Known about the structure:
This protein is of the alpha+beta class.
Amino acid sequence: MNLQHHFLIAMPALQDPIFRRSVVYICEYNDDGAMGIIVNKPLENLQIDGILEKLKIVAEPRNPDIRLDKPVMLGGPLAEDRGFILHSPPSDFSSSIRISDNTRDHHVARRAGNSRYR
């Protein structure tokens, strides 16, 4: 069974501190392994604007509907020095993962409970 582009929802009995009550989106699933992102656990006291500040990135003038005070999600326990950005079109970056012809990463954000997509 290929689990790519599926969500895994933690069973109620799972008590692992990271994966307890987690929703994990499986981005890749192949013979080399699997990669997933926890999409429903915001990090405490960390927002997008805080990440930009830590990286010394100055935000360019933008659409006022794009808010930088949104929470940063946990993602997972591995490679904590890296991150993923769930974004909507028209941005097609070379590192973007197309979920399917009809589904983009903004659909993942909607399912994860992002208030912008409710």
